[in-house]
UniProtKB/TrEMBL annotation:
In the C-terminal section; belongs to the 3-hydroxyacyl-CoA dehydrogenase family. Residues 189-285 form the 3-hydroxyacyl-CoA dehydrogenase C-terminal domain. InterPro entries: 3-OHacyl-CoA_DH_NAD-bd, 3HC_DH_C, 6-PGluconate_DH-like_C_sf, 6PGD_dom2, ClpP/crotonase-like_dom_sf, Enoyl-CoA_hyd/isom_CS, Enoyl-CoA_hydra/iso, Enoyl-CoA_hydra_C. This is Peroxisomal bifunctional enzyme. Residues 8-186 form the 3-hydroxyacyl-CoA dehydrogenase NAD binding domain. It catalyses: (2S,3S)-3-hydroxy-2-methylbutanoyl-CoA = (2E)-2-methylbut-2-enoyl-CoA + H2O; a (3Z)-enoyl-CoA = a 4-saturated (2E)-enoyl-CoA; a (3S)-3-hydroxyacyl-CoA + NAD(+) = a 3-oxoacyl-CoA + NADH + H(+); (2E)-hexadecenedioyl-CoA + H2O = (3S)-hydroxyhexadecanedioyl-CoA. Its EC number is 1.1.1.35, 4.2.1.17, 5.3.3.8. It comes from Daphnia magna. Keywords: Fatty acid metabolism, Isomerase, Lipid metabolism, Lyase, Multifunctional enzyme, NAD, Oxidoreductase, Peroxisome. Pathway: Lipid metabolism; fatty acid beta-oxidation.
Length: 543
């Protein structure tokens, strides 16, 4: 029997797997036609692949010429009807048997008679897929691993009907794409998922039965067994809906209860918590897919909106108590301070309360304010001010005691105490000078001028400004990002940056080198560096 020479490859499905397959096929020199539900999605995916190739050029892993030539070989197409001249079509649609059967029949009708048809299915019977086509001998499974450009394996699955020439041609094509091939007969889960899915489910049963936390299970597996990621992290990456679908295939087709899916997995999928792609599974993920340690970001809201969150002794005393509690909380990794309502962060110390104060009372009030500022500055975790409106007088000073400030576009800052015949009493003079420079601090303190967000950004008082409705979300994103870093390292960076401000540079540098050295030998230092070298995200524990 004649074997076809593969020159043009069609890829059906421009999601993560399909895009990865298209990338490796084009890199191997094949002309690739990429299709999805419409041309727009296919075009978007091709641009993404081109961007990915650009990154490889930046990293020196691909020459600019090779990247350009590869990108040129990638052609987005409107749909299956464009696969007429393809020598091989690889279907990489959602893992749904009815959908794949429909797509297989449609591909079969559109393709030339001698072309080969493969499915990237991870669990569905390839024999069943082959049976809906008029070319069953030219069908097989070509199961790539995720992420396709990085993972070396392709599992080739022989359907009962697959002809030997089909197998040989596809094996050669996979090898040309830089992959190592293992061969499986068509049995539930094939080779890889037959082993993997029960292992992932076992980790989930352990969570379900309260044997250990997801973090401990993943850390135990990683450090004890040496895979690059823990089973629950991996399940989140694969997609819990996919894991459940494969577990169900194994259970139904093999009929052994050892393959049943844990109730916990079913419930997470029912809740829509399908893992990384959905933002939540066993872990929580931010928009960039970075793991966000849950419960690690705290928020303090100054809650006296009818008085624009003006700071009276009661509110400042409460702050002092809450910050002392936060200091004892070993789980928190970042803290956000913001104001209730849409008008103010804090419009200053409470003028009504201050109006009758004697000198000693004002001193005690100022000292309480300074104690709160010192608490915020010396917390081991970063404190971020989300300034949503007026931050005047004591309000501006409170924001300055935070590690940095982000503000809404309608925020207003100022030290207007001179209008009241007093001066800032909670660090407004000195912290402001350190933040924006002595000249600007003098002008603000002497004139009592109130400045808008743009000006605050220009002079470096705030790090970023955002639309009012986006402010808190943006600040939470920043806090969540910090929460994924090594907590010991962040704490040392905060300490050194603060202390270094008040000592000569050589002493500051000495502080830095001591802190740098002190981090070596910590679990986090070992984990961070091992994660980099292992090309995986780090999982820091703060020890
Ligand atoms: C961890 C921090 C601890 C800090 C502890 C501080 C101790 C340090 C001691 C001293 C240093 C600090 C000194 C100061 O902060 S002095 C105060 C500086 N601030 C101001 O001067 C601003 C005063 N407010 C205004 O100018 C305006 O309210 C405005 C421009 C901000 C907004 O104007 P508008 O939109 O017209 O709103 P209202 O004026 O109607 O305000 C609504 C409501 O809120 C009351 N209010 C506003 N600010 C204060 C305030 N600072 N103290 C008390 N009450 C305030 C205002 O009176 C209104 O109340 P209502 O009439 O009963 O409705």
């Amino acid at each position: 029997m004649m074997t076809i020479e593969i020159r043009t490859v069609g890829v059906l499905g421009a999601g993560q797997m399909g895009s990865g397959i298209a990338q490796v096929a084009a890199t191997a020199g094949y002309t690739v036609k990429l299709a999805d539900v419409d041309l727009e999605r296919a075009t978007k995916a091709t641009s993404k692949i081109a961007a990915m190739l650009g990154k490889l050029v930046e990293k020196g892993k691909l020459t600019a010429e090779a990247a350009e030539a590869t990108a040129k070989r990638l052609i987005p197409v409107a749909g299956i009807a464009d696969f007429g001249d393809c020598d091989l079509v690889i279907e990489a649609a959602t893992e749904n048997v009815d959908l794949k059967l429909k797509l297989f029949a449609a591909c079969d009708a559109a393709m030339k008679p001698d072309a080969l048809l493969a499915s990237n299915t991870s669990s569905i019977s390839v024999t069943k897929l082959a049976a809906v086509t008029k070319r069953p001998g030219k069908v097989l499974g070509m199961h790539f691993m995720n992420p396709v450009p990085l993972m070396r394996l392709v599992e080739i699955v022989k359907a009962v009907q697959t002809e030997p020439e089909t197998y040989t041609t596809i094996k050669e094509a996979a090898e040309k794409m830089g992959k190592t091939v293992v061969t499986s007969n068509d049995a539930p889960g094939f080779l890889v998922n037959r082993i993997l899915i029960p292992m992932l489910c076992e980790a989930m049963f352990a969570v379900q039965e309260g044997v250990g936390t997801p973090e401990d299970i993943d850390t135990g597996a990683k450090l004890g067994l040496n895979p690059p990621m823990g089973p629950l992290e991996l399940a989140d990456l694969i997609g819990l809906d996919t894991v459940l679908a494969i577990a169900n295939v194994l259970y139904t087709d093999i009929g052994d209860t050892k393959y049943r899916a844990p109730t916990l997995l079913k419930n997470l999928v029912r809740a829509g918590w399908v893992g990384k792609k959905g933002g939540r599974g066993f872990y929580v993920y931010d928009e960039k897919g970075q793991k966000v340690p849950e419960g690690f970001v705290g928020t303090i809201t100054l809650n006296r909106p009818d008085k624009l969150n003006a700071l009276n002794a009661e509110l400042v005393g409460e702050l002092h108590r809450v910050l002392a509690e936060i200091r004892r909380d070993k789980d928190l990794r970042a803290l956000i301070v913001t104001g209730a309502g849409d008008k103010a962060f804090a419009a200053g110390a409470d003028i009504a309360a201050m109006s009758t104060m004697t000198g000693p009372e004002a001193k005690a009030f100022g000292e309480l304010g300074h104690a709160v500022g010192a608490q915020m500055e010396t917390l081991a975790i970063p404190v971020i001010a989300a300034v949503n409106g007026f931050a005047l007088g004591g309000g501006c000073e409170m924001a300055l005691a935070c590690d940095f400030i982000h503000a809404s576009t309608k925020a207003k800052f100022g030290q207007p105490e001179v209008n009241l015949g007093v001066i800032p009493g909670f660090g407004g003079t000195n912290r402001l000078a350190r933040r924006v420079g002595i000249g600007r601090a003098r002008e603000l303190c002497f004139t009592g001028d109130v400045i808008g967000a743009e000006e605050a950004l220009r002079i470096g008082l705030v790090n970023g400004i955002h639309a009012p409705e986006e402010l808190l979300g943006k600040v939470k994103e920043i806090a969540a990002k910090i929460a994924t870093k090594g907590p010991l390292a962040v704490a040392q960076a905060k300490r050194v940056l603060l202390r270094g401000l008040d000592v000569p540079l050589p002493t500051a540098n000495e502080l830095e080198v001591q802190a740098f050295a002190a981090l070596f030998g910590s679990e986090d230092q070992r984990e961070g560096m091992a994660a980099f070298l292992g090309k995986r995200p780090a999982n820091f524990v703060g020890r």
